[in-house]
Amino acid sequence: MTRKVRITMYMTLDGFAALAAGPEDPEADREFWEAMWTGPMADIDTLLLGRRTYEGWAAFWPSQIDSENEHWRTFARFSTRVEKVVFSHTLQEATWANSRIARGSVADEISSLRSRPGKDIIVAGGVQLVQSVLAQDLADELCLTVTPSTIGKGLPLFHMEPTLDHHDDIVPMGAPGRHDFRLLESRAFRSGAVYLRYGPAETARS
Known about the structure:
Blueprint: E1 5-12, H1 26-38, E2 44-50, H2 51-60, H3 70-81, E3 83-87, E4 99-102, H4 106-115, E5 120-125, H5 127-135, E6 141-147, E7 181-188, E8 194-200, H6 202-205
Parallel strand pairs: 1-5, 1-6, 2-3, 2-5, 3-4
Antiparallel strand pairs: 6-8, 7-8
């Protein structure tokens, strides 16, 4: 069975790749972690990361393996155990356990991973890597947790440069830069955040 490639990210209501934290709420935390990571973990064995995301995770998560926070502890052990592929032309070494550096193209690396036996592959950041995967239609699923906040600035999750040569409100099928998806699952959390899981629209597969 072909391994699925899934993008797993969070974003604000105005489209930035950021998690707008709310008041402490154990139940809201449980809902978030269950949807984004704890639930799917058993079906994942590979993480794809950009350099900055990798460096941030490698500096933080190994120290949380024995955290008192059960969600952090679970994710720390999971993220340390699975294979991590970091895309970079400048990173000299990847010292976090089970990590390696990919110097080639994203498409070639994903194709190579798909050809090997294994579980699902998660694209977990950074933004440029996610945008590259989306632009090349390399993902089987797009999983987003959208927090009900606007922050006004940050890194846009999606490529924001205008690609249309007009300003009509209706964007036609086949317009440059348009990518269509179909909703596979949705959940509303008590925090007001919404979890959305999409697959490519059938027209994108035809």
